[in-house]
């Protein structure tokens, strides 16, 4: 099967400098919701138009791109992708601004089309208020779609309406595309006119009309996000995940979470994130594109493009940046930031620390206030800390530098040279005590004030 996504529209009502289809629902652009759905069913093509170069950046490399310029209706969009149509394949038509269609619904539509040998199969639904929708008229095995503005009073009473989602026989499309006319008020070519040309058609009624809601403005975008969020959270809860407060929790469509994990309020989890079993996430936590093992605890923290192994604790107020890897039993505490760093088993950095471009061994203690000075103004440099090392509080490790296994750095040291295994490195000025100096200074200042 071929799946063609129509995504060339301007989206004026979004009042945005960006194309409508790249606006996000739960952190994922609408066009990617539709592309991911399409990939379940076959080879995917997308028709772009308005600011196509922006949309292209979101389209995977295995999706064919066609350009519609100017935009002259849905029929014209398909004409612009004529080279994508194969007479031996059926063609499923989807839309870049209709992101909530389910695999199950499209599967029913495709199955009906194949089993019936139709030229066209239309996804329809029953609308409480059908105003504005094309009505479905049947006559034997033929279907006609009458647009609301062209309908008589009698036809307007029909409440089964067109969703705009179709499966066409590829051979039928090739034979009939050129028969479309644009003799209408808009001067555009419409796919609905093709349905009336088919000799054998049928419909599949949609159970949940919210699946085919489109986005025209930001209010509708927010409404669709609320629907998507409720469905995702419900499915997670039914699968064994505890969502303490669904009204304050946002979880994206590609997130996977294991059983008995608890998600606390005011938590956002986005992207291709996987979370294991028996974890505790949040409150006030933001996670993007992370792989998280079992029995992990992340409190009031941020993590992006990081790998967190089993039995790790993070936070509060920690920030794991891209490239962070935390191995088993690591502890990352309050106000600790990591970037492109690998932290070995049982190691800990509990307070006020920055670890950038660092490789930290197992059983390492990183004292409070420690930083890796990884940037010299031109290039980034690595820091290596061996197994069992103890980094004293408030140390600055000036990269590139290696701290050996079992080594100790004295608190407040600025380490600029490698430290051998099992050594003590102290790099600070010797303490000098001048007894009575503070008292004499205060008296001196008091006398000076009196003279003034």
Secondary structure elements and pairings:
Layout: E1 2-7, E2 24-25, E3 28-29, H1 30-38, E4 43-48, H2 52-56, E5 64-67, H3 74-80, E6 90-95, H4 103-116, E7 120-126, E8 135-139, E9 142-146, H5 153-156, E10 160-169, H6 170-176, H7 192-197, E11 201-205, H8 218-238, E12 242-243, E13 249-251, E14 256-257, E15 262-263, E16 267-270, E17 274-275, E18 280-281, E19 285-288, E20 291-292, E21 297-298, E22 302-304, E23 307-308, E24 313-314, E25 319-320, E26 325-326, E27 331-339, E28 342-343, E29 348-356, E30 358-360, E31 365-366, E32 371-373, E33 383-385, E34 390-391, E35 396-398, E36 401-403, E37 408-409, E38 414-415, E39 424-425, H9 437-451
Parallel strand pairs: 1-4, 1-6, 4-5, 7-11, 12-15, 13-16, 14-17, 15-18, 16-19, 17-20, 18-21, 19-22, 20-23, 21-24, 22-25, 23-26, 24-27, 25-27, 26-28, 27-29, 28-30, 29-31, 30-33, 31-34, 32-35, 33-36, 34-37, 35-38, 37-39
Antiparallel strand pairs: 2-3, 6-10, 7-10, 8-9
